[in-house]
Amino acid sequence: MAKEKPARKIAAENRRARYNYAISENLDAGIMLKGSEIKSLRLGKASIQDAYAGFNRGEEGLWLINAHIPEYTQANRENHEPRRPRKLLMRKRELARLQSDLTRGGLTLVPLLIYFNDKGLAKVELGLAKGKKLHDKRETEKQRDWQREKGRLMRDKG
Length: 158
Prior knowledge:
The protein is α+β, with helices and mostly antiparallel strands. It has helices at about 15-20, 35-45, 90-105, 135-155, and strands at about 10-15, 20-30, 50-55, 60-65, 85-90, 110-115, 120-130. The two termini are about 30 Å apart. The mean pLDDT is about 85.
């Protein structure tokens, strides 16, 4: 029997990332959040469209930068900043490999999803990506249109 993938509740998705970038590898990382951020994420109003992950020069570790998690309305003065940098949690060996991949040049870490795993922990799915040129984006669009048209033809004929 095939092992089933655990159900994930998606809190935020970056749908433009697969269009703008060629993703070569997917990685999962934990994310350090405050209580009001978790509650706001569970409402599903976060945005990671402009976000990226990177290493800060002064601090150790990987950081999620420019992700927007709106303030939780029921939180009082203990609320959080919506666009603060958030630390990502990964093993040291993975971090060292990622840092060497990123310094080689031309690659970036793009957040694809923020989701809750089966234990209820918030995770970030990162993609090791290289930016697409305009002609690559056109090719992707052409393939998507052809798949859609092929599905219509099969549905109408069958």
